[in-house]
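Agenda item 2: zinc ion complex prediction
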Amino acid sequence: MSVRLLFRCQFCDAQPDPLTQINLEKSVPELMWGAYEDAMPEKWLIWHGRGLYGPPRYACREHRGDLVAFLREHYGTIGWHPWKRPPYPTSLRNPDKERAIAVGGRSAMPKWGYGPQVK
Ligand SMILES: [Zn+2]
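Presented output:
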């Protein structure tokens, strides 16, 4: 049984079409922080927040500009991430990152050797 995640534009009631939905779902386990990502084909904007930058946020094509403005207003003083200009990547995944997730890269600072050791 699979859990269907519901994505909603933060500014209206728009919901993604099935293909965009798939790309939004794929974005969830990303090992990302403070990054924008485009979800095709409807070109939704994903904000990978976390930590100081708040929860992940989503906006439909019509409201992606509003999301960027919102983030810059709320988090613009924290760091440069919300100020990043387009074009944004359509996928932030790459083999290195997949491997990092597989060996527990989500834990705190494993690359410095202080995280859990995977043998
Ligand atoms: Zn919207």
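Discussion summary: The CA atoms of residues 3 and 111 lie 32 Å apart.
Owner for follow-up: CH.
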